[in-house]
Amino acid sequence: MSGLDPIAPAEAKQMYLQQRKQEVSESTIQAHHYRLKHFVRWCENVENVENLNTLSGRDLQRYKMWRREDGDLNNVTMVTQLSTLRVFLKWCEKIDAVEPGTFEKVLLPSLATNEDRRTAMLDGEAAEKLINYLQQFEFATRTHALVQLLWHTGLRIGAAHSLDIKDYDRENQHVEVRHRPEKGTRLKNKEAGERIVTLSPDVCDTLDAYLEYNRVEAKDDHGRRPLFTSRHGRVAKSSLRDSIYRVTRPCKYTGECPHDRDLDSCEALETNKASTCPSSVSPHAIRRGSITHHLAQDVPDKVVSDRMNVSLDVLEKHYDRRSEEEKADQRRDYLKGI
Question: How confident is the model at residue 29 (pLDDT cuts 50, 70, 90)?
């Protein structure tokens, strides 16, 4: 432990969050706070770890077993929470708080094939990095426009696929979603899914640039001018999904592989194999992440329900990925002073 500087877990966590505030969104800071506070609680109240310098692999295994039992967590949630702990401990190495390689001693549970797909989502931190990458290196491409639209609006991929140029109103900053089965496009909830969805100026800027510079001029089989096109007309939904899988591989937008794979031989880098990357996500995972992000930003449930065209019951059961503690803390903020 030579060369390490003594530091208490709570102090290290506070320094970590303060540093990350310069790099990520407030919702990401809150998510990391919620996940790491359990580790600090374990250090202070269970194991009496007063100095992170002493942290060992066996300590981390004990924490892992305690956290699963204490929170009654499934594998997917455990992976999320322990992955954040790994990021924190890797940062701690940089300030001489833990021995080099300590973060690698946090062993993540193995997930069965597709175990995490139903609950998978693009979280706020990953979305921010992805969009920043697209703005810098793939600005105004079809994929950039699609990702930014999906993240901002939470649209289903079918709804995005159905949009025509005329459905985009730049002046009033919105898109109009319509069910048009007789003209080749359908919405999941049919007429009940029809609505006007407002857009931010940033999303409009991206769409404007895409339309001006990169959209392929084409009409579909019904003579409509789709928003998202290929040389053959309205781009297939499968092609839109494939582009999402490709661009959400972490090695694509961060340059690093969280799974320690050899990028020269990784199967997920082969043509049409992007979905085999454990960290790539589907368009629906972007929708789930967008909904969770809106809720974490204190957007009322009813507003999210109407904007994303999802019932309150389904919203709570299938889309809201906030933990019960996150929800409780947000309610506490609302009730301050009462």
Answer: confident
Residue 279 has a pLDDT of: 87
Q: Is the pLDDT of residue 40 over 70?
A: yes
Q: DSSP characters for 179-212?
A: -BGGGTB--TTGGGG-EEEE--HHHHHHHHHIII
Question: Minimal CA–CA distance to 308: which of 148, 186, 151?
Answer: 151
Query: What are 81's two structure tokens?
Result: 């929470």
**Going by CATH, does the domain composed of 124-276 fall within 1.10.443.10?**
yes
Residue 164 φ then ψ, to 5°:
-105, 165
- Asked if domains 9-105 and 124-276 share a fold, the reply is no
Domain boundaries, the chain: 9-105, 124-276
pLDDT at 189: 85
Please state the rounded mean pLDDT for residues 41-60.
Answer: 92
Q: What contacts 24, CB < 8 A, 6 or more positions away?
A: 124, 125, 128
User: Strand runs (DSSP E) across the chain, as ranges?
Assistant: 168-169, 174-177, 195-198, 229-230, 233-234
Least confident of 16-25, 88-97, 238-247: 16-25
Query: Which of 275, 210, 220 has the alpha carbon at shortest distance from 242?
Result: 275
- Joined tokens for residue 192: 């009940």
Give the three-class secondary structure for 278.
coil
Residue 88 pLDDT greater than 90, yes or no: yes
Enumerate the β-bridge partners of residue 233: 230
- Predicted TM-score (pTM) of the model is 0.63
Give the CA radius of gyration of the chain: 22
d(C-alpha 164, C-alpha 152), whole Å:
18
CB of 163 closer than 8 Å to CB of 201: no
Instruction: Identify the three-state secondary structure at position 265.
Output: coil
Amino acid at 79: V
Q: Whole-angstrom Cα distance, residue 40 to residue 11?
A: 9
Kindly give, in sequence order, each residue whose CB lies less than 8 Å from that of residue 259, ignoring residues fewer than 6 positions away. Answer: 278, 279
The C-alpha atoms of residue 122 and residue 130 are separated, in whole angstroms, by 10
Average pLDDT value for the chain: 87
Which superfamily, per CATH, for 9-105? Tyrosine recombinase, N-terminal domain (1.10.150.130)
